Amino acid sequence: MAQPLRLVIFGRQGAGKGTQCIRLIERYGVVHISTGDMLRAEVAADTELGRKAAEIMASGGLVDDETILGVAKSRISQDDVKAHGFVLDGFPRTIDQAAGLIDALGDHALDAVIDLDVPLGEVTKRMKLRARDDDTDEAIAKRLALYEEQTQPVLQFFADRGLLVRVDGLGTEEEVTERLYAAVDAQIEAGAKANSGNCE
After folding, report:
1. Topology classification of domain 6-33+86-199
2. Residues β-bridged to residue 164
């Protein structure tokens, strides 16, 4: 039986990642997994990992790589994810998390890592349009700069492994969706060819 689809999606704030995630789930039947959802589920289940994460968050700290990786491994080992595959959103955020994810999943770990690419100027404009009162120009610039700083090394990590697919995020939602589907379908096809070659 073919392995279910396993995707990771990245995109700057304002790139439209939320909308495209919903469409990926609808088309491919995968489970949407976000860092926040994973943490909340562990906390709600009162697991050891959940208690540790709750303690860190309550003190205003950032959950460390080891804890996040533990939570992610716990989630991707569950039956619904094993059966249907996943699209990971907001994870991994660091090289250590990315390496840990690949180790946990083993060979042919991921089908594709998608970077929904919308230029900085455009996402800044979008964020200003939908900004809340406390979203100053400075705060928006700072958030986007932090994303670049954290995410670029992780994108490079996946690019070095031939997994990164950049999808142009400019245009209507429908145009972007069509590009996204085409990119994912091409990766699935390439993966199927590689696997059939291994079987000969």
Report:
1. Rossmann fold (3.40.50)
2. 113
- What does DSSP assign to residue 139? H
pLDDT at 9 over 90: yes
CA-to-CA distance for 30 and 43, rounded, in angstroms?
23
What local confidence, expressed as pLDDT, does residue 191 receive? 77
Identify which of 120, 155, 154 has the alpha carbon closest to the alpha carbon of residue 140.
Answer: 120
pLDDT of residue 64 exceeding 70, the answer is yes
- Phi first, then psi: what are they for 112, rounded to 5°? -165, 150
- The ranges assigned to domains in the chain are 6-33+86-199
Give the C-alpha separation, 111 to 99, whole Å.
15
pLDDT above 90 as % of the chain:
60
CA 195, chain centre distance (Å): 24
87 three-class SS: strand
Residue that has been written with the tokens 């208690």 in this structure: 51
Q: How far apart are CA 27 and CA 18, in angstroms?
A: 15
User: Chain-centre distance of CA 190, in angstroms?
Assistant: 21
